[in-house]
Amino acid sequence: MKNTPTLSLRVPEPSGRPGDTPDFSHLKLDAPGAVDRPDVGTAPAEMRDHAFRLIRVLDDEGKAVGPWNPKLDPETMRRGLKAMILTRAFDDRMHRAHRQGKTSFYMKCTGEEAIAVAQGMILSREDMGFPTYRQQGLLIARDYPLATMMNQIYSNAEDPIKGRQLPIMYSAKDYGFFTISGNLGTQYVQAVGWGMASAIRGDDKIAITWIGDGSTAESDFHSALTFAAVYRAPVILNIVNNQWAISSFQGIAGGLETTFASKGIGYGLPALRVDGNDFLAVWAATQWAEERARTNQGATIIELFTYRGAPHSTSDDPSRYRPGDEHEKWPLGDPIARLKQHLIAIGEWSDEQQEEAEKETVEKVRAAAKESEAVGTLGQSRPSVKTMFEEVYATEDWRLVEQRREVGV
Asked: Quick one: how far is CA 84 from the chain centroid?
């Protein structure tokens, strides 16, 4: 054993740190339209390459090309564009609200808007979404009241969750939005279980869920894949690979060894890898997976390849761990700019319309903020004390009765 080297560990490192020039030369990106579209009934073993390729529809000139082009009508694309613009404006407003001391916490989804908006438009409100904290576009695309979202962020007297959740951890059953959990990965097993229950009932509703690249290292992720594959659960399993977890890049979760989509191969699941900044590609891949789920062919893994442009949260400073201009250099661009370019290229949008839409959106968010802040921001207004005794047990325990009496409510 004298000639063997000393053992050492390899600690993955990102391609750039603060002060470095962003370098994405290591990325292997298929040309728009280059990836074939398999039949929905294709066996997972016959489409393994799709876990390593990258489905893209929009090219650099804004043209929709290739077999994955969903050929959406202009009005649907305009609705999608406006929903993404609104999502970003909402994020900006609430981020400022945090800086003004109106809330304790916020998380933006800058650069990832196409994912939740497209998928929220495709699926029905009766299907159930199990999101992370960066799918606010799902609610916004479905016209959930902005002021109600703000009330929850402020935990004020009109908070629909009655102060029981952290800001941005929404819950809206009527909008197909399951309560967000701060525990990473739990939504994956919940979504699979919900889908299985729907199938057991003989219903026609499916589940969809999202997880970040870092959370694929959680055990719940692997448990969910096992059950989804074995029971052919009607569920769409999204992995949003936005390159960074809180302050560790996606290589720490195994992103340098293989793609996140390929993790589905070992479980016998079909896997697609998609340009998450391409609204049309996200739409097409989700539509493919939806058809598979609704026709009893089981679950699909979709890795959505994107970039987290903003800090992880208002508690994070990305300038301490990545190049400051890395987001601007992301080779797959910005989802809003790309869909705007496409609509202009086909004569269904203009720079003037874009400017007007952005102004209208800012006014809409401002009006919602005025309505919500009139109720009160964090600490200025809160749900009634009596609500903490409600909706805990179907029948009140004697201890709750005694506690309520002591409080006088």
From this structure: 13
CA pair distance 169, 163, nearest whole angstrom: 11
Cβ atoms of 220 and 186 closer than 8 Å: yes
- pLDDT at 392 exceeding the cut of 90: no
Rounded Cα distance between 35 and 49, Å, is 9
Q: What is the pTM of this model?
A: 0.96
Read off the tokens for 161. 């969750």
The three-state (H, E, C) secondary structure of 194-233, written as one string: HHHHHHHHCCCCCEEEEEECHHHHCHHHHHHHHHHHHHCC
Sign, CA dihedral 45-51-53-54, equals positive
Cα 227 from Cα 219, distance rounded (Å): 13
What is the gyration radius of the CA atoms in the chain, in angstroms?
22
Look up residue 270 and give its amino acid: P
Sign of CA dihedral 317, 311, 132, 169: positive
Is it the case that residue 2 has pLDDT exceeding 80? no
Instruction: Decide: helix, strand or coil at residue 37.
Output: coil
Name the DSSP letter for residue 304.
E
pLDDT at 210 over 70: yes
Residue pair 211/185 in contact (Cβ under 8 Å)? The answer is: yes
Average pLDDT over residues 292-313: 97
What integer pLDDT is reported at residue 1 of this predicted model? 67
Rounded to 5 degrees, what are φ and ψ at 50?
Answer: -65, -15
Closest CA to 184 of 153, 215, 226: 215
Q: At what angle do helices 279-294 and 335-345 cross, to 10 degrees?
A: 100
DSSP-derived secondary structure for 157-203: TT-TTTT-S-TT---BGGGTBPPP-SSTTHHHHHHHHHHHHHHHHT-
